[in-house]
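Propose amino acids for all 192 sites.
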């Protein structure tokens, strides 16, 4: 059996937001001598407001559920807008931007991937069955966040039923096929 770990949502660490306006479920976190290298978390946004300042980190935010939100980003050189209107829509932005979230129609759930912008990058892909996933051992992190109950077939192994909101982590070269469901495939690597 290939080397994979499945983490259920009940195992995620509950933490308060930096700005005190909510809480997050931390899924994975890695720190080194230079501080936080990457963090993956899931959160509910229940009201409009300004995101916490995470200067020095690049953020990728994926809408998981709800009717969406607009993210208005302001920084020293420009302003831009991301509209997340359906599950698996993705926004990418600097953690140092002043980001105002405006909900379209009530609460949303999102997945947040943050990486240190000086030496780390995240490749984040929305996946809907059927699709292929390729885990590799030359990354800092490979994971598949399961958005809904899903079936994942690992090469040379039996198919696995996965619960919504769990995380599948692979630490070696593994080819897999998402046979049912949807999720977010995350590869975190050293910056090229």
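Proposal:
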């Amino acid at each position: 059996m290939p080397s994979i770990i499945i983490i259920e949502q009940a195992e995620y660490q509950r933490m308060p937001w930096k700005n005190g306006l909510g809480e997050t479920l931390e899924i994975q976190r890695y720190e080194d001598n230079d501080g936080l290298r990457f963090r993956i978390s899931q959160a509910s946004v229940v009201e409009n407001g300004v995101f916490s300042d995470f200067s020095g980190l690049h953020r990728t935010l994926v809408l998981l559920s709800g009717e969406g939100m607009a993210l208005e980003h302001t920084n020293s050189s420009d302003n831009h807008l991301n509209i997340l209107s359906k599950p698996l829509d993705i926004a990418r932005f600097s953690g140092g931007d002043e980001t105002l979230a405006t909900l379209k129609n009530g609460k949303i759930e999102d997945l947040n991937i943050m990486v240190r912008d000086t030496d780390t990058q995240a490749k984040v892909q929305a996946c809907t069955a059927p699709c292929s996933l390729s885990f590799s051992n030359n990354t800092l992190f490979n994971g598949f966040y399961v958005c809904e109950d899903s079936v994942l077939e690992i090469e040379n192994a039996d198919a696995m039923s996965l619960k919504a909101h769990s995380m599948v982590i692979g630490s070696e070269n593994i080819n897999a096929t998402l046979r049912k469901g949807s999720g977010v495939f995350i590869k975190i690597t050293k910056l090229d």
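The mean pLDDT is 93. The radius of gyration is 16 Å.
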